[in-house]
Design goal:
The structure holds two protein chains of two kinds. Helix content of chain A is 74%, strand content 4%. By secondary structure, chain A is mostly helical. Chain A folds into three domains: 1-30; 32-61; 63-103. Chain A has a two-stranded antiparallel ribbon with strand order 1-2. In chain A, helix 2 (32-55) crosses helix 3 (65-78) and helix 3 packs antiparallel against helix 4 (83-99). Chain A is elongated and about 60 Å long. Chain B has a domain at 23-193. Chain B is built from 13 helices and no strands. The longest helix of chain B is centred in the middle third of the chain and has 33 residues, at 137-169. The chains are: A mainly alpha, B mainly alpha. The interface between A and B is large, with 81 and 111 residues.
Chain lengths: 103, 282
């Protein structure tokens, strides 16, 4: 299946999940286990995506400028920078490190 | 949040003159959050193209999928060399929280008929946070629609801007766009790390991911982490029901339009927070 098909399919799934919230019976909302797992999965997925984008290179682990971007972004977040600034700081750190010949 | 937002007797919905739109708190907060969030659509657009999607595919994700975390997940997996199936799976799993938001908003806004289908598409972190910060029904509605529709319009405009700009940049690595992606995911994760437990879950899942990378195809480590996170949620739920108080982590929308849900107040009981929010309003 080409990428377009997955774009459409994943978008359809995203909409179906949103709609499900309005169609499911109310008692599901009070199901603590369900909401708890949705919460831990949100954290786990974002942490995993952060890790993959920082160190994975295909099926290898690579230490390069992206780790510098991770550290710089963390500093920006500690200083309570807004999201867009955090992204720009990450880009600047990676580009800067490459400019001086690292990663 | 079955107990969260009592309707006030004599509120605007019951016939009293409503606050004009320009001084409506729901409208104002919705508008400012729409501008702030809509703007960073530019980073999604640029990163989407850098990850290998076409300009049109990047734009289609914002128009159709329209839930930031899942969109970033999709391009994050594709950018790392993962298959479309893994990208779709990661995006779908990350979208599950929207169903929980939908259930909360269903109790709050009670949309009927065709409106439910429109409400559903703009049910995201930001519109949920804006609506749940208001106490009166009319303001909840105004906040939800202003944030939801405002972000939908601006997010899509700025996605397109970012996609065309990113395409014109040339080599994404030279501009540090791979570093920008790392920063974006950390930025999405950060507001959810309130307290020791979510931080521990994040560390365990990140480690599980790194350990899985050499052994499975690209993209799959993210699904391994999702499974680990689900097991952690299941196990800790069992432990919590066996006597410890339960806290739902990671399901507060990742934005705080009202500025009183900072890290200091993260573990304050909701009732105290609501009481103060009421105090602020009066």
């Amino acid at each position: 299946m080409n990428l377009w098909a997955w774009v459409i399919l994943a978008s359809g799934a995203a909409y179906a999940i949103k709609l499900l919230g309005y169609l499911l019976p109310r008692r599901w909302m009070e199901n603590e286990r369900m909401t708890r797992i949705a919460g831990t999965m949100t954290i786990g997925l974002l942490a995993s995506l952060t890790a993959v984008n920082a160190v994975a290179h295909g099926q290898a682990i690579a230490v390069d400028a992206r780790l510098g971007a991770l550290a710089a972004a963390a500093v920006a977040l500690v200083l309570r920078a807004p999201f867009l600034v955090v992204v720009l700081v990450g880009a600047a750190a990676a580009a800067g490190l490459r400019l001086i010949g690292w990663g | 949040m079955s107990d969260g937002h009592p309707q006030r007797a004599g509120g605007p919905d019951d016939g009293a003159a409503p606050v004009p739109l320009r001084s409506s708190p729901g409208f104002r907060v919705g508008l400012s959050i729409a501008v702030a969030t809509g703007l960073y659509g530019v980073s999604f657009g640029a990163l989407g193209v850098a990850s290998g999607l076409s300009i049109l595919q990047t734009i289609a994700l914002s128009l159709l999928m329209f839930t930031g975390g899942s969109q970033f997940a999709f391009i994050g997996v594709v950018g790392g060399g993962g298959a479309g199936a893994a990208a779709a799976a990661a995006a779908t799993l990350l979208g599950i929280r929207n169903a929980v938001y939908g259930m909360q908003l269903n109790a709050m806004l009670a949309p009927r008929g065709w409106r439910r289908f429109a409400v559903a598409q703009v049910t995201i972190d930001e519109s949920t946070a804006t609506a749940s910060g208001q106490r009166e029904r009319l303001e909840q509605r105004r906040g939800f629609w202003t944030a939801g529709l405002g972000i939908y319009v601006l997010w899509n405009i700025f996605t397109a801007v970012g996609a065309f700009a990113g395409n014109a940049l040339g080599d994404p690595k030279q501009w540090g766009l791979d570093g920008a992606a790392v920063a974006a995911f950390l930025g999405l994760l950060w507001p959810r790390l309130k307290g020791r437990e979510p931080a521990a879950i994040a560390v365990v899942c990140a480690l599980a991911t790194v350990l899985a990378v050499p052994f499975v195809p690209p993209g799959v480590p993210i699904l391994v982490a999702a499974f680990v996170a689900a097991v952690l949620g299941w196990v800790s739920h069992a432990r919590a029901t066996a006597g410890r108080p339960l806290e739902v982590e990671g399901l507060e929308p990742d934005v705080d339009p009202y500025g009183h849900r900072g890290r200091e107040t993260a573990h304050e009981p909701r009732d105290a927070r609501d009481a103060r929010a009421e105090g602020d309003a009066e």
